[in-house]
Amino acid sequence: MSKNQEKTITVTLGRQATGAYGEHLAVDYLRQNNYHIVTTNWRCTTGEIDIVARDGDTLVFVEVRTRRRATVEAAFASITPAKQQKLVQAAYIYLGEHNLDDAMWRIDVIGVALPHGKKPIIKHAEDALDW
């Protein structure tokens, strides 16, 4: 191989590593879109909030769904009604623990697709839940 040729290496990530990579991409995406990241991977009794961010005066709880697929549809489809309920419960716990009961807030979903050998695809759905 000449020094001008690029070598492509394909790495298969485990499930946790895939999720962590998707969250990393989502944080970068949010920062590029002028969100302020408050915290990541915040845990409580009902689960985890992947990213807590600020969009102006609005507190945004972000669920990141990453799939090794060519499109983000499977990522968004994985947000079941039960998952939505857990996200809302976790958001209320976060608000209560941080004395933010009067804060404006919403729950967004970022879908990340990792198509084999191609650039990641990131789609952001604001106020994305059906509740």
Determine the structural class based on helices, strands and strand pairing. Answer: alpha+beta
The overall pLDDT, averaged over residues, is: 89
Radius of gyration: 16 Å
Low-confidence stretches: 1-11
Biggest sheet character: 5 strands, mixed
Structure characterization notes:
- This protein is α+β, with helices and mostly antiparallel strands and 131 residues long.
- Helices cover 31% and strands 32% of the residues.
- It contains three helices and five strands; from the N terminus they run αβββααββ.
- The chain has helices at residues 15-32, 73-77, 81-97, and strands spanning 36-44, 47-55, 58-67, 105-113, 121-125.
- A five-stranded mixed β-sheet has the order 1-2-3-4-5, sandwiched between helices.
- A hairpin with a 2-residue loop joins strand 2 and strand 3.
- The longest helix has 18 residues, at 15-32.
- The chain is globular.
- The chain starts with 14 loop residues before the first helix and ends in a 6-residue tail after the last strand.
